[in-house]
Design goal:
There is one protein chain. The protein is an alpha/beta fold. Helix content is about 35%, strand content about 20%. It has a seven-stranded parallel sheet. It has a six-stranded mixed sheet with strand order 3-2-7-22-23-24, covered by helices on one side. It starts with a helix and ends in a 5-residue tail after the last strand. Bound molecules: zinc ion. Zinc ion binds next to loops. Zinc ion (ZN) binds next to loops.
Protein backbone atom coordinates (compact mmCIF):
# COMPACT_ATOMS: atom_id res chain seq x y z
CA UNK A 1 0.00 0.00 0.00
CA UNK A 2 1.52 3.34 -0.99
CA UNK A 3 0.99 6.41 1.12
CA UNK A 4 -1.03 8.17 -1.51
CA UNK A 5 -4.21 6.11 -1.13
CA UNK A 6 -3.95 6.44 2.66
CA UNK A 7 -3.77 10.18 2.36
CA UNK A 8 -6.57 10.11 -0.08
CA UNK A 9 -8.70 8.01 2.24
CA UNK A 10 -7.74 10.13 5.23
CA UNK A 11 -8.41 13.39 3.48
CA UNK A 12 -12.23 13.14 3.43
CA UNK A 13 -12.18 12.15 7.10
CA UNK A 14 -10.05 15.12 8.03
CA UNK A 15 -12.32 17.42 6.08
CA UNK A 16 -15.34 15.90 7.79
CA UNK A 17 -13.73 16.35 11.23
CA UNK A 18 -12.88 19.92 10.37
CA UNK A 19 -16.48 20.56 9.32
CA UNK A 20 -17.75 19.02 12.59
CA UNK A 21 -15.43 21.35 14.48
CA UNK A 22 -16.83 24.37 12.66
CA UNK A 23 -20.38 23.16 13.31
CA UNK A 24 -19.70 22.72 17.02
CA UNK A 25 -18.16 26.16 17.24
CA UNK A 26 -21.12 27.77 15.49
CA UNK A 27 -23.52 25.95 17.76
CA UNK A 28 -21.56 27.00 20.82
CA UNK A 29 -21.72 30.59 19.68
CA UNK A 30 -25.48 30.41 19.23
CA UNK A 31 -25.79 28.82 22.68
CA UNK A 32 -24.27 31.92 24.22
CA UNK A 33 -26.80 34.28 22.72
CA UNK A 34 -26.31 37.98 22.25
CA UNK A 35 -27.51 39.86 25.34
CA UNK A 36 -30.84 41.66 25.10
CA UNK A 37 -31.22 45.45 25.23
CA UNK A 38 -34.26 45.13 27.47
CA UNK A 39 -35.86 42.37 29.53
CA UNK A 40 -39.39 42.72 30.90
CA UNK A 41 -39.86 40.16 33.62
CA UNK A 42 -42.16 39.16 36.47
CA UNK A 43 -45.14 40.18 34.35
CA UNK A 44 -48.42 38.72 33.27
CA UNK A 45 -47.92 39.09 29.54
CA UNK A 46 -50.94 38.66 27.30
CA UNK A 47 -49.15 38.20 24.00
CA UNK A 48 -52.18 38.09 21.63
CA UNK A 49 -50.23 35.23 20.01
CA UNK A 50 -52.35 32.07 19.92
CA UNK A 51 -49.24 29.89 19.93
CA UNK A 52 -48.29 31.27 23.37
CA UNK A 53 -51.07 33.47 24.81
CA UNK A 54 -49.48 34.00 28.24
CA UNK A 55 -45.87 34.50 29.35
CA UNK A 56 -43.88 35.73 32.35
CA UNK A 57 -41.18 37.59 30.51
CA UNK A 58 -39.85 38.70 27.16
CA UNK A 59 -36.69 40.24 25.79
CA UNK A 60 -35.98 42.92 23.21
CA UNK A 61 -33.00 43.59 20.95
CA UNK A 62 -32.73 46.26 18.24
CA UNK A 63 -36.36 47.23 18.72
CA UNK A 64 -37.76 43.76 18.18
CA UNK A 65 -38.90 40.91 20.42
CA UNK A 66 -36.17 38.22 20.60
CA UNK A 67 -37.63 36.01 23.32
CA UNK A 68 -40.99 35.31 24.97
CA UNK A 69 -41.32 32.82 27.81
CA UNK A 70 -40.31 32.17 31.41
CA UNK A 71 -38.44 34.48 33.79
CA UNK A 72 -35.54 32.05 34.13
CA UNK A 73 -35.06 31.69 30.37
CA UNK A 74 -35.26 35.44 29.91
CA UNK A 75 -32.59 35.97 32.58
CA UNK A 76 -30.09 34.09 30.38
CA UNK A 77 -30.24 37.03 27.95
CA UNK A 78 -29.10 39.54 30.56
CA UNK A 79 -25.82 41.20 29.69
CA UNK A 80 -23.81 44.06 31.16
CA UNK A 81 -25.86 46.68 29.31
CA UNK A 82 -29.29 45.07 29.51
CA UNK A 83 -32.02 47.14 31.09
CA UNK A 84 -34.47 45.12 33.18
CA UNK A 85 -38.04 46.16 33.92
CA UNK A 86 -39.56 44.23 36.79
CA UNK A 87 -43.31 44.52 36.24
CA UNK A 88 -44.07 43.44 39.80
CA UNK A 89 -46.62 40.90 38.59
CA UNK A 90 -48.52 43.51 36.61
CA UNK A 91 -50.11 43.10 33.20
CA UNK A 92 -48.42 43.71 29.88
CA UNK A 93 -50.28 43.72 26.58
CA UNK A 94 -49.07 44.45 23.05
CA UNK A 95 -49.13 48.14 22.10
CA UNK A 96 -52.71 49.06 21.28
CA UNK A 97 -53.56 50.34 17.81
CA UNK A 98 -56.47 52.60 16.97
CA UNK A 99 -57.61 51.31 13.58
CA UNK A 100 -59.70 54.39 12.78
CA UNK A 101 -58.83 57.81 14.08
CA UNK A 102 -58.00 61.31 12.87
CA UNK A 103 -54.45 62.28 13.82
CA UNK A 104 -54.59 65.86 12.49
CA UNK A 105 -58.15 66.18 13.81
CA UNK A 106 -56.87 65.38 17.30
CA UNK A 107 -54.07 67.93 16.91
CA UNK A 108 -56.58 70.62 15.89
CA UNK A 109 -58.95 69.63 18.67
CA UNK A 110 -56.20 70.13 21.24
CA UNK A 111 -56.10 73.77 20.06
CA UNK A 112 -59.89 74.24 19.69
CA UNK A 113 -62.47 74.96 22.37
CA UNK A 114 -63.43 71.60 23.85
CA UNK A 115 -67.21 71.29 23.74
CA UNK A 116 -67.44 67.62 24.70
CA UNK A 117 -69.61 66.92 27.71
CA UNK A 118 -71.69 70.08 27.34
CA UNK A 119 -75.32 69.60 28.34
CA UNK A 120 -76.95 72.65 26.77
CA UNK A 121 -76.54 75.25 24.05
CA UNK A 122 -75.94 77.87 26.78
CA UNK A 123 -73.04 75.83 28.13
CA UNK A 124 -71.53 75.67 24.63
CA UNK A 125 -71.81 79.45 24.26
CA UNK A 126 -70.30 80.01 27.72
CA UNK A 127 -67.21 77.97 26.81
CA UNK A 128 -66.77 79.87 23.53
CA UNK A 129 -67.16 83.22 25.33
CA UNK A 130 -64.41 82.20 27.74
CA UNK A 131 -62.05 81.68 24.77
CA UNK A 132 -63.20 84.93 23.11
CA UNK A 133 -61.92 86.93 26.10
CA UNK A 134 -58.36 85.94 25.20
CA UNK A 135 -58.81 86.11 21.41
CA UNK A 136 -58.36 89.33 19.38
CA UNK A 137 -61.52 90.55 17.65
CA UNK A 138 -61.85 89.30 14.09
CA UNK A 139 -59.85 86.13 14.82
CA UNK A 140 -61.57 82.81 14.19
CA UNK A 141 -62.67 80.74 17.17
CA UNK A 142 -62.99 77.03 16.47
CA UNK A 143 -64.64 74.50 18.74
CA UNK A 144 -65.46 70.85 18.62
CA UNK A 145 -67.63 68.33 20.41
CA UNK A 146 -71.20 69.67 20.75
CA UNK A 147 -73.96 67.09 20.60
CA UNK A 148 -77.56 68.27 20.61
CA UNK A 149 -78.62 64.72 21.50
CA UNK A 150 -77.18 65.39 24.98
CA UNK A 151 -79.17 68.62 25.46
CA UNK A 152 -82.68 69.03 26.87
CA UNK A 153 -83.83 70.14 23.41
CA UNK A 154 -82.40 67.62 20.95
CA UNK A 155 -83.25 69.63 17.83
CA UNK A 156 -80.37 71.24 15.94
CA UNK A 157 -79.46 74.66 17.38
CA UNK A 158 -79.93 77.86 15.38
CA UNK A 159 -77.19 80.52 15.22
CA UNK A 160 -79.05 83.58 16.75
CA UNK A 161 -78.05 83.03 20.36
CA UNK A 162 -74.44 82.32 19.41
CA UNK A 163 -74.32 85.31 17.01
CA UNK A 164 -75.70 87.67 19.67
CA UNK A 165 -73.16 86.49 22.27
CA UNK A 166 -70.22 86.60 19.84
CA UNK A 167 -70.69 89.52 17.42
CA UNK A 168 -66.95 90.23 16.90
CA UNK A 169 -65.41 86.82 16.20
CA UNK A 170 -66.14 84.41 13.37
CA UNK A 171 -67.07 81.16 15.14
CA UNK A 172 -67.22 77.63 13.77
CA UNK A 173 -68.21 74.80 16.10
CA UNK A 174 -67.97 71.26 14.82
CA UNK A 175 -70.42 68.63 16.02
CA UNK A 176 -68.99 65.69 17.98
CA UNK A 177 -69.11 63.39 14.92
CA UNK A 178 -67.40 65.89 12.61
CA UNK A 179 -70.34 65.72 10.19
CA UNK A 180 -71.97 69.07 11.02
CA UNK A 181 -70.79 72.62 11.82
CA UNK A 182 -72.57 75.42 13.65
CA UNK A 183 -71.44 78.90 12.55
CA UNK A 184 -72.34 82.43 13.66
CA UNK A 185 -73.34 85.49 11.60
CA UNK A 186 -69.81 86.81 11.42
CA UNK A 187 -68.58 83.51 9.92
CA UNK A 188 -71.51 83.34 7.49
CA UNK A 189 -70.77 86.89 6.35
CA UNK A 190 -67.10 86.08 5.66
CA UNK A 191 -68.14 82.99 3.71
CA UNK A 192 -70.91 84.75 1.78
CA UNK A 193 -73.41 82.23 3.09
CA UNK A 194 -76.98 83.54 2.79
CA UNK A 195 -80.50 82.78 1.66
CA UNK A 196 -79.33 82.48 -1.97
CA UNK A 197 -76.66 79.84 -1.22
CA UNK A 198 -77.32 76.58 -3.03
CA UNK A 199 -76.77 73.24 -1.24
CA UNK A 200 -73.64 71.52 -2.59
CA UNK A 201 -73.96 67.88 -3.65
CA UNK A 202 -73.61 65.58 -0.63
CA UNK A 203 -74.30 68.47 1.71
CA UNK A 204 -77.15 70.37 3.30
CA UNK A 205 -77.56 73.92 4.58
CA UNK A 206 -80.19 73.71 7.31
CA UNK A 207 -82.72 76.54 6.81
CA UNK A 208 -85.50 78.21 8.80
CA UNK A 209 -89.12 78.77 7.69
CA UNK A 210 -87.98 81.80 5.63
CA UNK A 211 -85.35 79.64 3.92
CA UNK A 212 -82.46 81.50 5.63
CA UNK A 213 -79.50 79.41 6.85
CA UNK A 214 -79.76 78.52 10.56
CA UNK A 215 -75.98 78.22 10.83
CA UNK A 216 -75.96 74.41 10.80
CA UNK A 217 -74.13 72.90 7.85
CA UNK A 218 -74.19 69.16 7.14
CA UNK A 219 -71.39 67.13 5.52
CA UNK A 220 -70.22 68.65 2.20
CA UNK A 221 -71.91 71.97 3.07
CA UNK A 222 -69.40 72.47 5.93
CA UNK A 223 -66.78 73.40 3.38
CA UNK A 224 -68.76 76.54 2.41
CA UNK A 225 -67.41 78.12 5.60
CA UNK A 226 -64.43 75.90 6.52
CA UNK A 227 -62.54 76.98 3.40
CA UNK A 228 -62.46 80.55 4.75
CA UNK A 229 -60.58 79.57 7.93
CA UNK A 230 -56.91 80.57 7.68
CA UNK A 231 -54.66 77.50 7.43
CA UNK A 232 -52.30 77.15 10.43
CA UNK A 233 -48.64 77.68 9.62
CA UNK A 234 -46.50 74.56 9.18
CA UNK A 235 -44.84 75.27 12.52
CA UNK A 236 -48.18 75.58 14.33
CA UNK A 237 -49.47 72.39 12.70
CA UNK A 238 -46.34 70.42 13.56
CA UNK A 239 -46.29 71.54 17.16
CA UNK A 240 -49.97 70.56 17.53
CA UNK A 241 -49.20 67.13 16.02
CA UNK A 242 -46.38 66.63 18.52
CA UNK A 243 -48.84 67.32 21.35
CA UNK A 244 -51.22 64.81 19.78
CA UNK A 245 -48.46 62.15 19.77
CA UNK A 246 -48.00 62.68 23.51
CA UNK A 247 -51.72 62.23 24.12
CA UNK A 248 -51.72 59.07 22.00
CA UNK A 249 -48.80 57.52 23.92
CA UNK A 250 -50.34 58.48 27.24
CA UNK A 251 -53.30 56.17 26.54
CA UNK A 252 -51.21 53.13 25.58
CA UNK A 253 -51.52 53.49 21.84
CA UNK A 254 -48.45 52.64 19.77
CA UNK A 255 -50.16 52.76 16.41
CA UNK A 256 -52.88 54.73 14.65
CA UNK A 257 -54.64 54.21 11.34
CA UNK A 258 -55.19 57.79 10.19
CA UNK A 259 -58.54 57.82 8.40
CA UNK A 260 -57.85 60.43 5.73
CA UNK A 261 -54.80 62.64 5.26
CA UNK A 262 -53.93 65.18 2.59
CA UNK A 263 -50.64 65.13 0.72
CA UNK A 264 -49.31 68.05 2.76
CA UNK A 265 -50.27 66.27 5.99
CA UNK A 266 -48.53 63.07 4.84
CA UNK A 267 -45.42 65.11 3.92
CA UNK A 268 -45.42 66.49 7.45
CA UNK A 269 -45.83 63.02 9.03
CA UNK A 270 -42.85 61.84 6.99
CA UNK A 271 -40.75 64.83 8.09
CA UNK A 272 -41.69 64.17 11.72
CA UNK A 273 -40.79 60.48 11.39
CA UNK A 274 -37.41 61.39 9.92
CA UNK A 275 -36.80 63.87 12.73
CA UNK A 276 -37.69 61.32 15.43
CA UNK A 277 -40.84 63.23 16.45
CA UNK A 278 -43.38 60.53 15.60
CA UNK A 279 -42.41 57.32 17.49
CA UNK A 280 -45.65 55.81 16.29
CA UNK A 281 -46.75 53.20 13.74
CA UNK A 282 -48.82 55.50 11.56
CA UNK A 283 -50.87 53.74 8.89
CA UNK A 284 -52.04 56.53 6.62
CA UNK A 285 -55.16 56.54 4.47
CA UNK A 286 -54.90 59.04 1.62
CA UNK A 287 -57.90 61.41 1.43
CA UNK A 288 -60.17 61.22 -1.60
CA UNK A 289 -58.38 63.78 -3.75
CA UNK A 290 -57.65 62.81 -7.34
CA UNK A 291 -54.26 64.57 -7.50
CA UNK A 292 -53.07 62.95 -4.25
CA UNK A 293 -54.35 59.52 -5.28
CA UNK A 294 -52.61 59.85 -8.67
CA UNK A 295 -49.38 60.90 -6.94
CA UNK A 296 -49.24 58.05 -4.43
CA UNK A 297 -50.47 55.29 -6.73
CA UNK A 298 -47.78 56.28 -9.26
CA UNK A 299 -45.11 55.81 -6.56
CA UNK A 300 -46.70 52.53 -5.43
CA UNK A 301 -47.45 51.21 -1.96
CA UNK A 302 -44.85 52.06 0.70
CA UNK A 303 -44.57 50.24 4.01
CA UNK A 304 -42.65 50.64 7.28
CA UNK A 305 -40.92 53.84 6.15
CA UNK A 306 -38.42 55.52 8.48
CA UNK A 307 -37.74 52.40 10.49
CA UNK A 308 -41.34 51.26 10.78
CA UNK A 309 -43.14 54.54 11.35
CA UNK A 310 -45.19 55.41 8.27
CA UNK A 311 -47.22 53.30 5.84
CA UNK A 312 -48.77 54.85 2.72
CA UNK A 313 -50.76 52.19 0.91
CA UNK A 314 -54.45 52.90 1.54
CA UNK A 315 -57.10 55.30 0.22
CA UNK A 316 -60.00 56.67 2.26
CA UNK A 317 -63.39 57.27 0.63
CA UNK A 318 -66.74 58.41 2.02
CA UNK A 319 -69.98 56.70 1.01
CA UNK A 320 -72.33 58.53 3.36
CA UNK A 321 -72.60 60.77 6.45
CA UNK A 322 -73.30 59.98 10.09
CA UNK A 323 -76.27 58.88 12.17
CA UNK A 324 -76.30 61.74 14.70
CA UNK A 325 -76.84 64.36 11.96
CA UNK A 326 -79.10 61.99 9.93
CA UNK A 327 -76.62 62.00 7.05
CA UNK A 328 -76.07 58.22 7.06
CA UNK A 329 -77.69 56.73 3.93
CA UNK A 330 -80.52 54.32 4.75
CA UNK A 331 -82.47 51.86 2.60
CA UNK A 332 -85.70 53.12 4.27
CA UNK A 333 -86.23 56.64 5.71
CA UNK A 334 -85.32 57.58 9.28
CA UNK A 335 -87.97 56.46 11.76
CA UNK A 336 -87.89 59.95 13.32
CA UNK A 337 -87.67 61.87 9.99
CA UNK A 338 -89.89 60.09 7.45
CA UNK A 339 -88.92 62.33 4.51
CA UNK A 340 -85.19 61.76 4.98
CA UNK A 341 -83.15 58.67 4.06
CA UNK A 342 -79.74 60.32 4.47
CA UNK A 343 -77.05 61.34 2.00
CA UNK A 344 -74.65 59.57 -0.32
CA UNK A 345 -71.44 61.62 -0.24
CA UNK A 346 -69.85 59.85 -3.21
CA UNK A 347 -71.37 58.44 -6.37
CA UNK A 348 -71.23 54.62 -6.34
CA UNK A 349 -69.38 54.76 -9.69
CA UNK A 350 -66.64 56.83 -8.05
CA UNK A 351 -66.08 54.24 -5.32
CA UNK A 352 -65.87 51.54 -7.98
CA UNK A 353 -63.43 53.53 -10.13
CA UNK A 354 -61.08 54.29 -7.23
CA UNK A 355 -61.33 50.65 -6.09
CA UNK A 356 -60.29 49.38 -9.54
CA UNK A 357 -57.41 51.80 -9.72
CA UNK A 358 -56.29 50.77 -6.23
CA UNK A 359 -56.44 47.07 -7.05
CA UNK A 360 -54.27 47.66 -10.13
CA UNK A 361 -51.68 49.63 -8.16
CA UNK A 362 -51.58 47.49 -4.99
CA UNK A 363 -53.46 49.93 -2.73
CA UNK A 364 -56.16 49.21 -0.19
CA UNK A 365 -59.49 51.08 -0.18
CA UNK A 366 -61.21 51.96 3.10
CA UNK A 367 -64.63 53.50 2.66
CA UNK A 368 -66.68 55.22 5.36
CA UNK A 369 -70.18 53.73 5.43
CA UNK A 370 -72.60 54.01 8.34
CA UNK A 371 -76.16 53.46 7.10
CA UNK A 372 -77.41 50.17 5.65
CA UNK A 373 -77.66 51.77 2.21
CA UNK A 374 -74.17 53.26 2.49
CA UNK A 375 -72.79 49.84 3.37
CA UNK A 376 -74.62 48.09 0.55
CA UNK A 377 -73.39 50.66 -1.97
CA UNK A 378 -69.79 50.05 -0.87
CA UNK A 379 -70.06 46.25 -0.91
CA UNK A 380 -71.62 46.43 -4.40
CA UNK A 381 -68.88 48.76 -5.65
CA UNK A 382 -66.09 46.57 -4.20
CA UNK A 383 -67.71 43.45 -5.65
CA UNK A 384 -67.88 45.03 -9.11
CA UNK A 385 -64.26 46.24 -8.92
CA UNK A 386 -63.06 42.79 -7.82
CA UNK A 387 -64.88 41.21 -10.74
CA UNK A 388 -62.96 43.51 -13.11
CA UNK A 389 -59.61 43.22 -11.29
CA UNK A 390 -59.64 39.90 -9.41
CA UNK A 391 -57.27 40.19 -6.44
CA UNK A 392 -56.78 37.51 -3.81
CA UNK A 393 -55.42 39.54 -0.90
CA UNK A 394 -56.92 43.03 -1.22
CA UNK A 395 -58.10 43.51 2.40
CA UNK A 396 -60.49 46.29 1.39
CA UNK A 397 -62.25 47.77 4.38
CA UNK A 398 -65.53 49.40 5.29
CA UNK A 399 -64.97 52.02 7.96
CA UNK A 400 -67.69 51.96 10.66
CA UNK A 401 -70.05 49.36 9.08
CA UNK A 402 -72.50 50.43 11.78
CA UNK A 403 -75.94 49.63 10.43
CA UNK A 404 -76.06 46.56 8.20
CA UNK A 405 -78.99 45.01 6.44
CA UNK A 406 -79.06 41.44 7.69
CA UNK A 407 -78.57 40.07 4.16
CA UNK A 408 -75.31 42.01 3.81
CA UNK A 409 -73.58 40.60 6.92
CA UNK A 410 -72.22 37.43 5.21
CA UNK A 411 -71.02 39.44 2.21
CA UNK A 412 -68.02 40.81 4.16
CA UNK A 413 -66.53 37.33 4.60
CA UNK A 414 -67.53 36.28 1.08
CA UNK A 415 -65.78 39.28 -0.51
CA UNK A 416 -62.85 39.34 1.94
CA UNK A 417 -63.88 42.83 3.10
CA UNK A 418 -62.92 43.88 6.63
CA UNK A 419 -65.48 45.74 8.79
CA UNK A 420 -63.42 48.32 10.71
CA UNK A 421 -65.66 49.27 13.64
CA UNK A 422 -65.43 51.49 16.69
CA UNK A 423 -66.99 49.88 19.73
CA UNK A 424 -67.26 53.23 21.51
CA UNK A 425 -69.72 54.46 18.85
CA UNK A 426 -72.15 51.78 20.00
CA UNK A 427 -72.12 53.00 23.59
CA UNK A 428 -72.30 56.66 22.51
CA UNK A 429 -75.21 56.07 20.10
CA UNK A 430 -77.32 53.55 22.04
CA UNK A 431 -79.35 56.22 23.86
CA UNK A 432 -81.00 57.54 20.70
CA UNK A 433 -80.23 55.15 17.82
CA UNK A 434 -83.49 53.26 18.37
CA UNK A 435 -85.45 56.47 17.69
CA UNK A 436 -83.59 56.97 14.41
CA UNK A 437 -83.98 53.38 13.20
CA UNK A 438 -86.89 51.62 14.93
CA UNK A 439 -86.35 48.18 16.42
CA UNK A 440 -86.05 45.89 13.35
CA UNK A 441 -83.01 47.63 11.90
CA UNK A 442 -81.21 47.39 15.25
CA UNK A 443 -80.68 43.68 14.56
CA UNK A 444 -77.91 44.67 12.15
CA UNK A 445 -76.54 47.52 14.30
CA UNK A 446 -72.95 47.20 15.61
CA UNK A 447 -73.32 43.48 14.88
CA UNK A 448 -69.90 42.33 16.07
CA UNK A 449 -70.83 38.77 17.03
CA UNK A 450 -72.71 38.12 13.79
CA UNK A 451 -69.77 39.45 11.78
CA UNK A 452 -67.08 37.53 13.70
CA UNK A 453 -69.12 34.34 13.42
CA UNK A 454 -69.36 34.89 9.67
CA UNK A 455 -65.55 34.64 9.49
CA UNK A 456 -64.14 38.18 9.52
CA UNK A 457 -61.92 40.07 11.94
CA UNK A 458 -62.98 43.45 13.35
CA UNK A 459 -60.21 46.03 13.85
CA UNK A 460 -61.39 48.30 16.67
CA UNK A 461 -60.88 52.01 17.12
CA UNK A 462 -62.17 55.22 18.62
CA UNK A 463 -62.56 57.60 15.67
CA UNK A 464 -60.86 60.22 17.86
CA UNK A 465 -61.49 63.16 18.16
CA UNK A 466 -65.11 62.03 17.59
CA UNK A 467 -64.68 59.89 20.71
CA UNK A 468 -62.07 60.05 23.45
CA UNK A 469 -58.56 58.76 22.71
CA UNK A 470 -58.49 56.14 25.52
CA UNK A 471 -58.64 52.78 23.66
CA UNK A 472 -59.92 50.97 26.76
CA UNK A 473 -63.27 52.74 26.25
CA UNK A 474 -63.70 50.67 23.09
CA UNK A 475 -62.27 47.56 24.81
CA UNK A 476 -64.87 47.95 27.56
CA UNK A 477 -67.69 48.68 25.12
CA UNK A 478 -66.73 45.61 23.08
CA UNK A 479 -67.03 43.23 26.04
CA UNK A 480 -69.88 44.94 27.91
CA UNK A 481 -71.99 47.00 25.46
CA UNK A 482 -72.50 49.27 28.48
CA UNK A 483 -71.49 52.85 29.19
CA UNK A 484 -69.07 53.97 31.90
CA UNK A 485 -71.93 53.85 34.43
CA UNK A 486 -72.64 50.19 33.58
CA UNK A 487 -75.83 51.14 31.74
CA UNK A 488 -77.90 49.35 30.59
CA UNK A 489 -77.82 46.43 33.02
CA UNK A 490 -76.78 43.31 31.13
CA UNK A 491 -75.64 45.36 28.10
CA UNK A 492 -77.34 46.80 25.00
CA UNK A 493 -78.22 43.93 22.60
CA UNK A 494 -75.64 41.91 24.57
CA UNK A 495 -75.68 38.89 22.25
CA UNK A 496 -73.40 40.93 19.94
CA UNK A 497 -70.60 41.31 22.54
CA UNK A 498 -67.00 40.24 21.95
CA UNK A 499 -65.08 38.00 24.36
CA UNK A 500 -62.13 39.64 26.13
CA UNK A 501 -59.69 37.66 23.97
CA UNK A 502 -61.44 38.95 20.85
CA UNK A 503 -61.54 42.49 22.22
CA UNK A 504 -57.77 42.35 22.89
CA UNK A 505 -57.13 41.07 19.37
CA UNK A 506 -59.45 43.79 17.99
CA UNK A 507 -56.95 46.41 19.21
CA UNK A 508 -53.73 44.53 18.47
CA UNK A 509 -53.59 41.69 15.97
CA UNK A 510 -56.69 42.56 13.94
CA UNK A 511 -55.64 46.15 13.20
CA UNK A 512 -52.25 44.75 12.15
CA UNK A 513 -53.97 42.39 9.72
CA UNK A 514 -56.20 45.20 8.45
CA UNK A 515 -52.99 47.14 7.62
CA UNK A 516 -50.91 44.29 6.11
CA UNK A 517 -48.63 44.54 9.17
CA UNK A 518 -49.23 41.20 10.91
CA UNK A 519 -45.70 39.92 10.21
CA UNK A 520 -44.23 42.86 12.16
CA UNK A 521 -46.95 43.87 14.58
CA UNK A 522 -50.02 42.95 16.57
CA UNK A 523 -48.63 40.46 19.09
CA UNK A 524 -45.64 39.93 21.36
CA UNK A 525 -44.01 37.31 19.18
CA UNK A 526 -40.32 36.74 18.43
CA UNK A 527 -39.35 38.85 15.43
CA UNK A 528 -42.07 41.50 15.77
CA UNK A 529 -41.68 45.11 16.91
CA UNK A 530 -41.33 45.44 20.68
CA UNK A 531 -44.41 47.64 21.11
CA UNK A 532 -46.11 47.08 24.44
CA UNK A 533 -47.95 48.63 27.34
CA UNK A 534 -47.69 48.09 31.08
CA UNK A 535 -51.08 48.37 32.86
CA UNK A 536 -51.83 48.77 36.56
CA UNK A 537 -54.46 46.02 36.52
CA UNK A 538 -55.37 42.92 34.56
CA UNK A 539 -57.99 43.93 31.99
CA UNK A 540 -58.45 40.28 31.06
CA UNK A 541 -59.53 39.29 34.58
CA UNK A 542 -60.86 42.27 36.59
CA UNK A 543 -64.65 42.58 36.85
CA UNK A 544 -66.04 44.34 33.77
CA UNK A 545 -67.12 47.39 35.80
CA UNK A 546 -63.48 48.01 36.83
CA UNK A 547 -61.97 47.90 33.33
CA UNK A 548 -62.32 51.66 32.78
CA UNK A 549 -60.35 52.38 35.95
CA UNK A 550 -57.24 50.85 34.38
CA UNK A 551 -54.23 53.13 34.19
CA UNK A 552 -51.45 52.94 31.63
CA UNK A 553 -48.16 52.80 33.59
CA UNK A 554 -45.89 53.00 30.57
CA UNK A 555 -45.90 52.72 26.81
CA UNK A 556 -43.05 51.35 24.68
CA UNK A 557 -42.54 51.65 20.94
CA UNK A 558 -39.76 49.51 19.46
CA UNK A 559 -38.44 48.75 22.94
CA UNK A 560 -38.13 52.45 23.77
CA UNK A 561 -40.24 53.96 26.55
CA UNK A 562 -42.30 56.84 25.14
CA UNK A 563 -44.60 57.40 28.12
CA UNK A 564 -44.24 56.85 31.84
CA UNK A 565 -47.03 57.64 34.30
CA UNK A 566 -46.31 60.07 37.10
CA UNK A 567 -48.19 59.90 40.42
CA UNK A 568 -50.43 62.78 39.28
CA UNK A 569 -51.80 61.28 36.08
ZN1 LIG B 1 -63.62 58.86 11.07
Amino acid sequence: MSTAPVLRSLAPRAIAAFLVLIAVRTEAQSRAPLPADLIVTNARVYTADEARPLAEAFAVRDGRVVFVGSKSEAAVLKGANTRTVDAGGRTVIPGMVDAHAHFSGLAQTLRAVDLTGTHSYDEVIARVLERAKATPKGTWILGRGWDQNAWGDTRFPSHEKLSAALPDHPVLLTRVDGHADLVNTSAMRLAGLNIATVDPSGGKVIRDAQNAPTGVLIDNAKDLVERKIPVPTAMEARSALKDAVNVIHRWGLTGVHDAGASRSAIDMFEQMAQAGELNLRLYVMISDDSAAIAHYTSIGPRSALYNGQVWVRAIKLYADGAMGSRGAALLEPYADDPNNAGLLLSAPAHIREVAERALKSGFQVNTHAIGDRGNRVVLDAYEAALRTVPTADHRFRVEHAQILNYDDIPRFAQLGVIPSMQASHQTSDMYWIGKRLGSTRLLGAYAWRSLINSGVVIPNGSDFPVEQVNPLISFHAAIARQDANDWPAGGWLPEQRMTREEALRSMTLWPAYAAFQEKDMGSLTVGKYADFVLLDQDIMRVPVELVLRTKVMSTYVGGKEVYHATPNN
